[in-house]
Amino acid sequence: MAVPKNIAKLQVRVWDLPTRIYHWGQLILVAAALLLGFFGPEWWLDAHVYVGYAIIAFIVFRLIWGVWGPEYSRFSNFLFSPKAVIAHIKKLVSGRPSHFLGHNPLGSLMVFALILILALLSISGLTVLGGVENQGPLAGFASFSLGTLARIGHEFLAYLLVGMIVAHIFGVLFESYMSKTSLTRAMVDGRKPVTEDQRPATLYPVRKEGGMIIAFGVICVIGAVGALASTMPASGLIAMPVNESFQSECADCHQVYHPSLLPRESWVSLMGNLSDHFGEDASLGADTTNEIMSYLSRYAAQAWDTEAANFLSLVDEKHPFQITATPFWISRHANIPQEIFRTKPVNSKANCSACHKDAAGGMFADQNIQIAHGQN
Amino acid sequence: MKHKLLIGVIFLALASPAQAGPRETIMELLAAEAQVANSSYSGFSAAAGEALFLATFTTGKPETTSCTTCHTNSPSNVGETRAGKPIDPMATSVTPDRYTDQAKVDKWFRRNCNSVLGRECTAQEKGDFLTFMINQ
After folding, report:
1. Where are the domains of chain A?
2. Beta partners for A13?
3. Which among A102, A217, A348, B48 could bridge B84 via Cys, Cβ 3.0 to 4.6 Å?
4. Residue among B85, B112, B114 whose CB faces A254 most closely
5. CB contact at 8 A, A207 and A68
6. Do the Cβ atoms of A280 and B63 come within 8 Å?
């Protein structure tokens, strides 16, 4: 077929609708995840997590679309050899880059890198959620120490992602300028003008329906497996019976603190010093004291693998049984105005459940924080 | 000493056969104990109980210098523990089931006298205190 003379005005549908929806949808999701992750209060964790789930679904779609989608969306269309990449860079440096209808070699690298980093962010995020928060599909598998490691990775990758997004935007603007074609616009309407040095598209038979059905099916299966895994008991939690003496005696003066909130040694020392208990005599009969002490020893922080148990185990040596003196407690509450602790309805730093709605269970999930506001 | 106390209890029990509630028993035991401790014992005084309730001590723990630290200066008010938990008013007119459980009465006098006064309370003090709370 002869190449028409007015080829410059010819436009080719490069980006199919699902790919464009993927691109802009992922943009919105990633922006939301980054904003929520960096700036959102802890109690918005659910929003961050659900955006993350959506990002996973989008990645799965994109991977499947890269195999069963239309030509320009296929990975095979923009899989370049290292040689081709180097050749492209050399031309770029010399100021005469060749233009591609689909992704150019550097753009292709960015596409793969972005998909990879989003996948790694998803996996590390789920590991943090499962290991540190004892929630989500990995709660039954991930330990706290694995979760804290994953958190370091998750944060590092998030900063890296921001850098890559900047590079991506710069690359798009640069290529748009060099090729005198708005790549951004092309990602909106899908069309790019064909220029002389570009080969006409040799279209694969478009099997959109097939790719869509496969993507939908795989996303459903992954979602179902994830939902099922989420119902597994969290690996950091153990079954704990209720002890009547513990509940009633301690609740005489203060809310009942979950046994996981202090290490064994601290509980033993606390129960041995009840006659001077935070400035008051809280002594009990010997039988009751022993009963409560053995209950607390058995279900102390060492028996759990929650965030609270792990961090609050690191007590302040001068105040071994004062939870609010632990370095973790202090650093976590550093941004809360002292006024909130002093006034109603909180009244005291010891009143965990004023803001942590799940304090009684020892979970202290981020989502269950509701900062109490003073009524005075 | 012990049999003296016993005789006192029996005497009081016989003297007031119509009043057999747990609170009355607690008061009678305190009266008997006070009698034993002080031969010039002449009953409990609500005024002395009130004075004790409102007094400030320097002999106890610095965090709790007075009953009013937690119980407010009126027995009909809801108090608050130092950990922020509400305490039912001390007056039986507001909290009718107070002072009916010997173990509880013993536990709280033991703890709170030690916290506020830095020592155990005498039977006279306990009796005065409860008389004040019961007669609000």
Report:
1. 7-230, 244-368
2. A191
3. A348
4. B85
5. yes
6. yes
Smallest CA–CA separation between B14 and chain A, in Å?
Answer: 32
How far is C-alpha B112 from the chain's CA centre? 11
Domain that holds residue B66: 46-134
**B contacts of A351 (beta carbons < 8 Å):** 83-84
Give me the residue from A276, A281, A348 closest to B83, CB to CB: A348
Let me know whether B27 and B65 are in one domain: no
Q: What values do phi and psi take at A369, rounded to 5?
A: -90, 130
> Does the beta-carbon distance from A281 to B61 stay under 8 Å?
yes
Pick A7-230's CATH classification: 1.10.357.10, 3.40.190.10, 1.20.950.20, 3.90.400.10.
1.20.950.20
Q: What is the pLDDT of residues A257-304, one digit of tens each?
A: 999 999 999 999 999 999 999 999 999 999 999 999 999 999 999 999
The percent of residues in chain A predicted with pLDDT above 90, rounded, is 80
Query: What are A209-218's pLDDT values in tens digits?
Result: 888 999 999 9
Q: Which of A255, A279, A354 sits opposite B64 (nearest CB)?
A: A279
B117 and B67 co-located in one domain: yes
Task: Give this complex's ipTM.
Answer: 0.82
Split into its structural domains, chain B has a count of 2
